Structure formats: structure tokens, C-alpha cells
């Protein structure tokens, strides 16, 4: 069993931290001693966010994570970085005949481009410490088991999966381990509202996914890299 304070003194970026999964991830990383840096698109921290007044959370509002210059400047200004967890993204479903190029591009901007830019800049920031680190992305079950009706979303998450594996191979010798979790439908209020007749009990919970992410982002993970970790629950 790993030390539950194994992230003491370590700085970790968490994107998408105002969402259901992001809130759970930040809460667990804080519990384990991390200082969390949270770039967010909102102009202010939403009132519902449980970590909003925590002393070890440093939020940066009005941050566009698909803006190359903004992401580069953000990571360059961070203190010694240990890890980066990339949860920000979007979802859209439509048949291919109803998917415009703008729709397709938007999904890739929200999912693949944000993960690429944050991963690239996280590598640079972690390299400055010379002590290795961890990067965790989020792919999605359809990227591994494609289904119809969501081609823009699925291909964007497939790009995240490939990015994760390619980057893992590139930086392994530097002690930077790169992985991605691959969830099914996550049990969040938004997903329940959009699918009211679904079996919510079968969906993985944010707190459960946070445990997987925290392990992959921790020093306790000394061996696993380039892995797409299925976290489907019973869905």
C-alpha cells in the first residue's frame, strides 16, 4: 500500500478541475499532499467547487487550453513541476452526415489539442527539475471500442490515446511516465440528467476514477507507462 502523503511538496497541474471528475481528482491529490495548479476557462472559481478556498490550490481563470501561446506561458511560469493531469474536454454525438467540419474540429480542439499542448509543456516543465514526473490523460471507451454516431468525439479521443502512447515512448528514459485512463460513462449529475433511464449504479464514480489517476500520477507508480487503463465499472 502506498504512502497516502506520497505527493507532499509536489506540484501538479489539473485541467478540467471544475468538473465532476476534476473536483474529485483535486480533492484526492490535496489529501495526498500535492499543491494543485488549476488553469480554468471560467472567469472565476464556481461556487460549487469544493477546493475553491484551499490554500494549496492555485487557480488561473480565463485560460484557453487550446491557445498555444497561453498554455506555453502558463507552464513556463510554474514552480518545479512533478505532474500534469489533463481532464478538460468536451463531448458531442451526431451521425457523420450531420457532423460539420466545424463540429469535427471543435471536438479535436477540446480533446486532442488541449491534451497535446498541456502534455508538451508539462514535459518541458518537468524536464527543468531533472527528477522525472508523471502525466495522465483521459481517453474514452469509444476510442478503443468504436461505436457509431459520435465520430468527431471518438476520433478526438483516439488521438489522445495515441498521443499518450507515443509520448510515453519518447520520454520514458527521462523518468517521465505517461498514461491515460479510459472511462466509460462517468456518474456525474450532467450525465444522469442526459440519460435519466440509465443504470447509474453501473457507471464508474468520480472518486473511483480519481483513485486510479492519483496512483498513475504518484511516485508509487514506478513502472507503468504508455498504458491505456480501462476504468469502465460495470457499464
Please characterize this protein's 3D structure:
The chain has 235 residues and is of the alpha/beta class. The protein has a single domain (11-230), classed as Rossmann fold. It is built from seven helices and seven strands. The chain has a seven-stranded parallel beta sheet, sandwiched between helices. Helix 1 (20-31) crosses helix 7 (206-216) and helix 3 (101-129) packs parallel to helix 5 (151-171). The model has no long low-confidence stretch (mean pLDDT 94).
Features:
single chain; 235 residues; alpha/beta; seven-stranded parallel sheet; 7 helices; 7 strands; 39% helix; 16% strand
Protein topology:
Blueprint lengths: L10 E5 L4 H12 L3 E5 L17 E4 L7 H9 L4 E6 L14 H29 L3 E6 L2 H4 L6 H21 L4 E8 L5 H6 L11 H11 L11 E4 L4
Parallel strand pairs: 1-2, 1-4, 2-3, 4-5, 5-6, 6-7
Helix pairs in contact: 1-7, 2-3, 3-5
Tell me the number of structural domains: 1
Biggest sheet, spatial arrangement of strands: 3-2-1-4-5-6-7
Give, in order, the helices and strands.
Answer: EHEEHEHEHHEHHE
Poorly predicted regions are none
- CATH C-level name: Alpha Beta
Q: Give the fraction of residues assigned to helices.
A: 25-40%
Major beta sheet, specifics? 7 strands, parallel
- SS strand fraction: 15-25%
What is the CATH architecture descriptor? 3-Layer(aba) Sandwich
Shape: globular
Q: How many distinct helices?
A: 7
Mean pLDDT: 94
Distance between the termini: 28 Å
**CATH topology grouping:** Rossmann fold
- CATH homologous superfamily, by name? NAD(P)-binding Rossmann-like Domain
Structural class given helices, strands, pairing?
alpha/beta
Number of strands: 7
Radius of gyration from CA coordinates:
17 Å
Amino acid at each position: 500500500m502506498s504512502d497516502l502523503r506520497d505527493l507532499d511538496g509536489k506540484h501538479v497541474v489539473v485541467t478540467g478541475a471544475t468538473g465532476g471528475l476534476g473536483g474529485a481528482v483535486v480533492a484526492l491529490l490535496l489529501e495526498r499532499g500535492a499543491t494543485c495548479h488549476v488553469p480554468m476557462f471560467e472567469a472565476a472559481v464556481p461556487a460549487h467547487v469544493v477546493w475553491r478556498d484551499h490554500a494549496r490550490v492555485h487557480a488561473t481563470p480565463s485560460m484557453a487550453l487550446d491557445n498555444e501561446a497561453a498554455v506555453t506561458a502558463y507552464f513556463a511560469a510554474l514552480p518545479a513541476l512533478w505532474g500534469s493531469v489533463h481532464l478538460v474536454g468536451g463531448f458531442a454525438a451526431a451521425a457523420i452526415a450531420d457532423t460539420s467540419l466545424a463540429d469535427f474540429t471543435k471536438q479535436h480542439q477540446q480533446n486532442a489539442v488541449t491534451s497535446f499542448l498541456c502534455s508538451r509543456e508539462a514535459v518541458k516543465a518537468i524536464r527543468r527539475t531533472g527528477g522525472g514526473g508523471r502525466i495522465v490523460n483521459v481517453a474514452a471507451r469509444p476510442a478503443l471500442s468504436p461505436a457509431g454516431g459520435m465520430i468527431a468525439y471518438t476520433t478526438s479521443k483516439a488521438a489522445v490515446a495515441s498521443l499518450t502512447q507515443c509520448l510515453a515512448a519518447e520520454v520514458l528514459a527521462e523518468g517521465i511516465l505517461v498514461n491515460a485512463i479510459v472511462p466509460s460513462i462517468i456518474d456525474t449529475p450532467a450525465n444522469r440528467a442526459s440519460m435519466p433511464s440509465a443504470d447509474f449504479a453501473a457507471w464508474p464514480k468520480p472518486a473511483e476514477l480519481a483513485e486510479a489517476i492519483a496512483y498513475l500520477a504518484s511516485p508509487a507508480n514506478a513502472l507503468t507507462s504508455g498504458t491505456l487503463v480501462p476504468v469502465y465499472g460495470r457499464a
